[in-house]
Design brief:
This protein has 158 residues and is mainly beta. It has one domain (3-154). It is 12% helix and 37% strand. The protein contains three helices and nine strands, in the order βαββββαββαββ. The longest helix has 9 residues, at 122-130. The mean pLDDT is 95.
């Protein structure tokens, strides 16, 4: 089964790039400079920031569905990220190297399946979840901090 993993669009974050610390804090955003890798996983390019690169820590509504599962959480965005990750049947290293929680949702945004796997074993779990036709899309989360990581869709679905 073909699947597509996508990062977030950079457009909603571009207005934050280059703002002063005071301007960011007024918007509830913090700037951090990566000092290790892995450690600061960007949700746009789906890669870990390299030491010395700047990331923005902000709250993001990753599950906007009008259901009890509506949710937001803190995420890192690489300051200056320009193009979102879009890969078919490829697991980006930022997911591959971590424990990942997958949550399968219906079109209406209701949880239909959930499980945890080592990033090296995600393909089988994705395939199992999409075998359930009530699962329309999957959200990947970094399991330990619980933060949203990426969206997974069947190829050919929205």
């Amino acid at each position: 089964m073909l699947f597509r993993i996508t990062g977030l669009s950079p457009k909603p974050f571009r207005h934050l790039f280059g703002l002063s610390e005071a301007e960011l804090l007024a918007k509830g955003v913090e700037r951090h400079v990566a000092d290790v890798t892995p450690g600061y996983p960007d949700r746009v390019e789906l890669r870990d920031a390299l030491p010395g690169e700047s990331v923005l820590l902000l709250n993001y509504t990753h599950q906007p569905a009008p259901s009890p599962y509506r949710s937001s959480h803190a995420i890192f965005v690489l300051e200056g990220a320009w193009a979102r990750y879009d890969g078919v049947d490829q697991i980006p290293e930022a997911l591959r190297c971590r424990l990942i929680s997958l949550r399968g949702f219906s079109r209406e945004g209701h949880l239909r399946d959930a499980d945890v796997a080592d990033g090296h074993c995600l393909e089988a779990l994705i395939e199992r979840m999409f075998a359930n036709h009530s699962v329309s899309y999957i959200h990947a989360h970094f399991a330990k901090p619980g933060c949203y990581a990426a969206r997974i869709d069947r190829v050919g679905s929205a």
